[in-house]
Amino acid sequence: MNILNLETKLAAAEKLITEKTDLLSQGSNFALELSINSLKSHIEDLSFQLKTAKEQREKEVVELRLIGNEVDNGTVPLDLLANLSKYFSGLVTAASAKLKLGQDISGVIPSEITYPLNLRFADIGQGSSRLFITGDTSPDLFGESLLENSLNGLFELLNSDFNESLSDQVHFLGLRSTHNLAEFLKVLRKRSIELELSWAAPNETKHFWKGRRDKIQILEKLLDGFSASDPINTTVCGVVELISRSGKLDIRQEDGDLIKVTYSKKLFADVRKLRLGDNVRLDCKEVTVFNSSTEEEKKKYSLSKILWEE
What we know:
Blueprint: H1 3-24, H2 30-57, E1 59-67, H3 78-101, H4 111-117, E2 120-125, E3 130-136, H5 146-158, H6 166-173, H7 175-190, E4 194-200, E5 206-211, H8 213-224, E6 226-228, E7 232-244, E8 248-252, E9 258-262, H9 268-271, E10 279-291, E11 296-309
Helix pairs in contact: 1-2, 3-5, 3-7, 5-6, 7-8
């Protein structure tokens, strides 16, 4: 069974177990309990199959097609290649660290994160300046891949609405990652190079971004302007409206406001116990993200611990 089918079946099974658990909360039902236990075993089996399928896939391949006078002959100046590789590696490893640990880290990123990624410059395509970068899929026990989630986040950021959802993706990937992306774009801008970035995800989704010169300049300026306050402890209460395996929770508060909360991979086992419609109380870290380019600021939340659910 391919990865897309496995993820579809897994999502359907998780939705079904949520519905049946809700029914069970209304009163004891032995047959329903047996069905839920059977579904739990089915989900564990699907997760194992998903992990195995992604292990067999082994590699993620990202293509960077460079367009510009310096690179139109099918070769790339060595200093340009070095800088692009440096900042692309930096944005992926920093994003992976943020997703795994739940916060930006300073200094050297631990080998427990960089080693499984195994990012490599693989090849230059013939006939044009097409660079290929590979990394290991390296799924965990639940079939989740740090590299896959980081690349998904990158393309969501690149294709996001600059006026609405950009700060959400900046918070999701972390400031260190997005500042590396800003430097990556700055290299392209200074050399008057446009970019076509593409990646075929394990679930067969084709991701693509075309960076024209004007778009590169705008996005570079916006990303370079982001900063964040020191985190403070806070509590978020409300009803669970969205649970994403990639690390996102949506909580609807009593006053109707929707709070978007990110969570790290180390909390995945706790989060997967939540169900849509649960009333929850979450211990979170709150930061204020500020963009000097637009003079906008928004509060962002990262999960520290689930205090209770009902």
